[in-house]
Amino acid sequence: MIDLLDIRYVRLGTRDLVAADHFAREVVGLELARVDAGARYYRSDDRDHTMVYFEGDPGDHTAGFELRDGAALQAAAAALSERGFQVQQGSADAREQRRVHDFVSFRDPTGNRIDLVVRPQHSGRRHFPSRDAGITGFSHIGLCSTDAPRDEAFWCGVLGARVSDRIGDAALLRIDPVHHKVALFPTTRSGIQHVNHQVASIDDVMRGWYLLREKGVKIVFGPGRHPTSGAVFLYFEGPDGMIFEYSTGVRTILPEQEADYRPRQFPAVPSSFCMWGSLPDIPEFRKADA
Ligand SMILES: [Fe+2]
């Protein structure tokens, strides 16, 4: 079984780097770490970077996950190849771009591009955000799924994820004690469906709500609280239709709780996404059944 230690980064293509950069810094509040070969790298915590915007197809998304060491990476590549997945070894240039010692890349059954990386770089510099959004770090992604049961079986059976809860057919998956690091949403396309950053408190969620409204950013869900993870959330729309989320207070399932933990089934209705009554203006949340 492949053992994903944590989610590490997202890489997002865009046709308008200037607008995307403005959004990443002035709206989300990320720190610009560097501009390299036209791509813009953003920090949200102690890691070298957790998000990249590059000039390219706005549908070109990659999510990076960390593995323990080189042996785990080679075993993962072999296991995926055996199952018929096309696994690409990362070139020297691509490793340098990603600031990782080594990586391989493949597409999950829906076609989502996944990097498996080892020894991704941390930064010795303190994270210095562009604005006081209260961000404590990049934490999870929503991922599109064209066949939710198939993709749940792949993520759990091959990549070692565990189901924390389901809303309709949408599985919220953990790879460490955090309730979810990946959520699979039934839809008809591939790609990253939303990008989550954790903030320090509910005050940051509400400050964000007022600030985003003042800036004219489209709020698509919240403020609210997820009955699944217990997190207080706010979702808003960024460049190229990408959904961004701030949330705080996510539940954990500790190693000693794993044996007794049972995923809960929630119906595919708005109250399964928000216990306060907020209604999502997000297609994948309005219809979580496959
Ligand atoms: Fe989320």
Descriptive account of the structure:
The protein is an alpha/beta fold and 290 residues long. The protein has 7 helices and 17 strands. The chain has helices at residues 17-28, 70-82, 92-98, 148-157, 202-215, 270-273, 283-286, and strands at residues 6-14, 31-36, 39-43, 51-55, 61-66, 88-89, 102-107, 113-118, 135-145, 162-167, 170-174, 182-186, 192-199, 219-225, 232-237, 243-248, 264-266. A 9-stranded mixed sheet has the order 14-15-16-13-9-12-11-10-17, with helices on one face. An 8-stranded mixed sheet has the order 2-3-4-1-5-8-7-6, sandwiched between helices. It is globular and about 45 Å long. The two termini are 27 Å apart. The model has no long low-confidence stretch (mean pLDDT 97). The chain binds fe (ii) ion. Residues 140, 142, 194, 196, 245 line the site of fe (ii) ion.
Can you give me a brief rundown of this structure?
Helix content is 22%, strand content 35%.
Separation, N- and C-terminal Cα atoms: 27 Å
Order of strands across the main sheet: 14-15-16-13-9-12-11-10-17
**Rg from alpha-carbon coordinates:** 18 Å
What percent of residues adopt helix (DSSP H or I)? 10-25%
Largest sheet: 9 strands, mixed
Query: What value does the average pLDDT take?
Result: 97
> What small-molecule ligands were found?
fe (ii) ion
- What would you call the shape? globular
The H/E string reads EHEEEEHEHEEEHEEEEHEEEEHH
Number of helices: 7
